[in-house]
Q: What sequence folds into this?
């Protein structure tokens, strides 16, 4: 992946929702100027959410999501409706597409209630105005459009763009921790899961943000950290390590140099760092037979020494000395029923957008299930959590 490209997880996600035959797919195609979605007069043509990363003016990099009809029927229909609702977990802006000849129906109002409960900014787009004798006046947050003849499509794009400003993730990964001319050392072990010759995504994003803020990034492997630190002309402002090498990197980094991990930076960036720190304490409360969910946002090929399915369970068992059961999910999978779990340990979420990470964190909190992440859990089990979150005073208070 190029350092200049915008990954899907960093793009505004725009979801189109509504009943079957409201013209969702036609409107998606009109907005994007592409035949992104299959269009048919047959109800239920869209059977799964269709996602496409693209450039959309005047927004820029976005992900467009076309969802199945919210009024689908039958056993398969119920599954499609479930998929459509799950898409809201990663939707930043929702466009509710309504047949303007019919108006809002119960299923549309149910969606609006769901948008509000998830605090998802939304627009109501009344489609098929080419079939109306007169186009009504639109209320705030509403627009009358026609995918068929292009009426108000550009105005819809502008309305989406205005809504998108409120949905932007204004947090920074590392920029608020450094000043121009600072030196940042990034410890990058050669990850067995990464394609040969490539840095993994969090490492790329941190390097880019360090450079863009006028600081200097020095990159080395964990085996070269001691020599790297001794050869530098000045003390680094921060050392950032891959969580898997936390223990050794902590030993090799002098106490007067701030230390954290890519995973900890990302839970702060996309999720809830304070909640993750608080959740790690659950590791000391686990009992024989307890279940832990280990969830990853990506679907990479599992290696023989995979961190999620191999290393993390071994670290937990060795730390707790308990007979713990583990379940695993990846990609967009996240269980609706969390009641069986005593703890959730999540990856850094670099392949998920902030909306989905916050949705998972919030859902776990609502269910009363502690949730932490890889970096926090590893630091906690190695006795270096306090040191690794020293740059973040609010999170540090969770330990007091």
A:
């Amino acid at each position: 992946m190029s350092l200049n490209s915008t990954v899907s997880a960093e793009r505004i996600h725009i979801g189109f929702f509504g009943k079957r035959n409201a013209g969702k797919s036609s409107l998606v195609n009109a907005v994007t100027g592409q035949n992104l979605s299959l269009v048919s007069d047959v109800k239920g043509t869209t059977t799964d959410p269709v996602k496409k990363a693209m450039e959309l003016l005047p927004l820029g990099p976005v992900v467009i999501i076309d969802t199945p009809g919210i009024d689908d029927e039958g056993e398969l229909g119920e599954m499609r409706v479930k998929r459509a609702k799950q898409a809201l977990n990663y939707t930043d802006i929702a466009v509710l597409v309504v047949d303007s000849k019919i108006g809002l129906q119960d299923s549309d109002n149910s969606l609006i209630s769901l948008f509000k409960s998830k605090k998802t900014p939304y627009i109501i787009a009344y489609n098929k105005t080419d079939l109306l004798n007169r186009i009504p006046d639109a209320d705030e947050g509403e627009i009358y459009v026609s995918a068929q003849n292009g009426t108000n499509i550009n105005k819809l794009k502008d309305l989406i763009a205005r809504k998108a400003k409120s949905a932007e993730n204004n947090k920074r990964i590392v920029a608020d921790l450094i000043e121009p001319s600072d030196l940042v050392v990034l410890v990058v072990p050669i990850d067995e899961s990464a394609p040969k010759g490539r840095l993994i995504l969090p490492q790329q994003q941190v390097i880019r943000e360090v450079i863009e803020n006028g600081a200097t990034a020095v990159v080395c492997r964990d085996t070269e950290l001691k020599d790297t630190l001794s050869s530098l002309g000045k003390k680094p402002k921060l050392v950032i390590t891959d969580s898997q090498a936390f223990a050794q990197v902590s030993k090799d980094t002098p106490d007067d140099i701030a230390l954290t991990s890519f995973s900890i930076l990302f839970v702060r960036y996309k999720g809830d760092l304070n909640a993750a720190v608080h959740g790690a304490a659950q590791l000391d409360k686990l009992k024989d037979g307890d279940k832990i969910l280990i969830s990853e946002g990506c679907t990479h090929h599992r290696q023989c020494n995979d961190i999620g399915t191999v290393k993390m369970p071994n670290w937990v068992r060795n730390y707790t000395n308990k007979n713990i059961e583990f379940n695993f999910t990846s990609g967009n999978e996240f269980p609706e029923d969390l009641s069986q779990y005593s703890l959730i340990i999540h990856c850094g979420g670099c392949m998920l957008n902030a909306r989905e990470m916050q949705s998972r964190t919030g859902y776990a909190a609502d269910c009363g299930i502690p949730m932490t992440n890889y970096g926090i859990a590893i630091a906690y089990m190695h006795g270096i959590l306090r040191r690794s979150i020293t740059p973040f005073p609010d999170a540090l208070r969770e330990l007091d």
User: Anything to note?
Assistant: Residues 153-167 form the longest helix (15 residues). Residues 37-46 have pLDDT under 50 and may be disordered. The two ends are 41 Å apart (CA to CA).
